[in-house]
Amino acid sequence: MRIKIINPNTTWSMTEKIGACARAVAHSGTEIVAVSPAMGPVSIESHYDEALAVPGLLQEIAAGEREGIDGYVIACFGDPGLKAARELARGPVVGIAEAAMHLASMVASRFSVVTTLGRTMGQAWHLAEIYGMERFCANVRACELPVLELEEPGSNARERIVDECRRSLEEDGSDCIVLGCAGMTDLCEHIGGLLGVPVIDGVAAGTKLIESLVTLKLQTSKRGELAHPLPKTMKGALEGFTLPR
Ligand code: 5HY
After folding, report:
1. How many whole angstroms from its chain centre is CA 79?
2. Tens digit of each residue's pLDDT (9 = 90 or more) over 159-199
3. Which of 17, 47, 114, 133 has its CA 20 to 30 A from that of 126?
4. Among 50, 76, 127, 203, which is best to mutate for testing ligand 1, by the most ligand atoms less than 8 A from CB?
5. pTM of the full predicted structure?
């Protein structure tokens, strides 16, 4: 099977890291295609960034449909464009926040999300609410870490994330950590080994969930809300997104 993992930001070093972590858990028969869109923000740290990441993301979904991709992971903790991606895709699409929160709810009683900038915490809480995970989500914490600092050699990002994870276990009543950024994917094993609790990376979680859904031949339902979008003319800079009749 072929799974496309889309890092909706345009920082390819993060995309390569995401692809490597997905390949590390994927079945030998699964091909992982890891991409960033050709256009969009270099990192996603606000609603503005998230909105501007979606057109490029949808271009990658449309390309995947032409390429015969079996399923998709949206590798950004805000799960941007998830429903729109599901309308375009035949196969299943998951977001890494959705995947990580669901798996956390199966191995622990309460999880804390540890993310980057404080201003993105609201989106994590919003996703917990719409995914029905509020009763499992003890807290959402931020390290006040710019996303791209995760890509800087020699930054103290890892230590700051570990410290915040420790505080969440001590103060939130959590018994599990959800990493709140795709850029943290390579820290999962290290932090889990240090803290002795389940630490869930949405990239790995999403990859295995899509593998399972595809194996079970479960595709996105095309009856009603997630049916293919209606034919629509798009004008101006979005003209290329027109859906012909
Ligand atoms: C992510 N931003 O996973 C989110 C993290 C965040 O560029 N990739 C990003 O803080 O929302």
Report:
1. 5
2. 999 999 999 999 999 999 999 999 999 999 999 999 999 99
3. 17
4. 76
5. 0.97
Q: How far apart are the CA of 179 and the centre of ligand 1, in A? A: 10
Domain locations in the chain as residue ranges: 2-96+204-241, 97-201
Residue whose CA is closest, atom 2 of ligand 1? 44
pLDDT confidence band for 99 (50 / 70 / 90): very high
Cα–Cα dist 33/19, whole Å = 7
Domain spanning 97-201: CATH 3.40.50.12500: yes
Query: Which pair of structure tokens corresponds to residue 62?
Result: 């449309």
Q: 18-43: per-residue pLDDT in tens?
A: 999 999 999 999 999 999 999 999 99
> How many Å lie between the centroid of ligand 1 and the Cα of residue 231?
32
CA-proximal residue: ligand 1, atom 9 (nearest): 44
Nearest-angstrom CA–CA distance, 44 and 76: 8
CA–CA separation, 131 and 110 (whole Å): 15
The ligand 1 site (C-beta within 6 Å) comprises 9, 43-45, 76-78, 115-117, 120, 147, 181-183
The CATH number assigned to the domain with range 2-96+204-241 reads 3.40.50.12500
pLDDT band at 85 (very low <50, low <70, confident <90, very high): very high
The arithmetic mean of pLDDT across residues 81-102, rounded, is 98
Closest CA relative to residue 184, chosen from 92, 100, 127, 103: 100
